[in-house]
Amino acid sequence: MTLDLQGDELLLAQLRELLSPSSPAVKAVESCDGRRRRRRGSKRAQDDDNTTNNGKRRSKKQKSTSSFVTSVPDFDGYRWRKYGQKQIEGAMYARSYYRCTRSAEQGCPAKRTVQRNDDGDNGGAAPKYTVVCMGEHTCTATDSLEAPVILETTAVVAPGIIGTNNRPDEDDNDDTFTSAGSTTTTGTGVESPAISDITWSSSSCGGDYVVDDYGAGLFDVHDSWASSASLQEMEDFTGPIRSPVHVPADGWTIDHFLLQLANNEPVSHFSSAC
DNA sequence: CGGATTTGACCCGC
DNA sequence: GCGGGTCAAATCCG
């Protein structure tokens, strides 16, 4: 994955630019550098006697975590709500903390952190992000807008999915892409997340392992299809799914996919529809 | 107006 | 004590 990858990422970047106007995430970025947010004081220091010590603190250990590296971190099929951002020691970019938007309604424990990799120069292409998922989704997708549909190509993007910033020229808060905001639905709410050359690893079963080749092979790039299929068509997922789209089985969630990858199992849900 | 984001402070494991 | 993870008020934005 050297030259081809760069080409793919170039294409990705171009697609991002094409679709970015529809992305609220980009707006967020723009607003970020456009005007500085006013400092807001936290009242914590004043009334911390009853606001912080009410036993609501987390337990730091998460049972199962899985991580992967992707240039499209906002792919997931779920909606995420950002609840924190932190500059990590030794990391060039801040780490963002997300939890499932249904954590409140349905008590979904799923969380994830997204951190842009310090991969320096990648030719202005999409930067890579390390996404660490913690906990599994217990929320149902029935009432949500997410009906994960995996495209086979890394270059294919869902409406709004890639509208995230991924701007290599941002140096500080460019990981403020919004996963939640990017999950714009089209009609039936069918979503078509795209995975771009992901590198998976899992610590859920002890010991990390990387499935770089696996992921790369799974989501092989089909430039020809990606470029021949018009973006308009791709945006219209209310209709029948086109052949290059892999439709997951019932009850599929990204977690299943994560688990399968983590267990080095064949991803049977992704039957080749080509 | 309600949901999402920002961000400083706080908590807690190591 | 340090640093990562979380909280929650303030703010933004559609």
Automatic annotation (TrEMBL):
Residues 22-69, 161-191 are annotated as: Disordered. GO terms for cellular component: nucleus. Residues 176-189 have a biased composition (Low complexity). SUPFAM superfamilies: WRKY DNA-binding domain. Its main location: nucleus. The keyword Nucleus applies. One of its GO terms (biological process) is regulation of DNA-templated transcription. It is found in: Nucleus. Residues 76-117 form the WRKY domain. It comes from the Eukaryota. The keyword Acetylation does not apply. Keywords: DNA-binding, Nucleus, Transcription, Transcription regulation. One of its GO terms (molecular function) is transcription cis-regulatory region binding. PROSITE patterns: WRKY. PANTHER family: WRKY TRANSCRIPTION FACTOR 21-RELATED (PTHR31282). This is WRKY domain-containing protein.
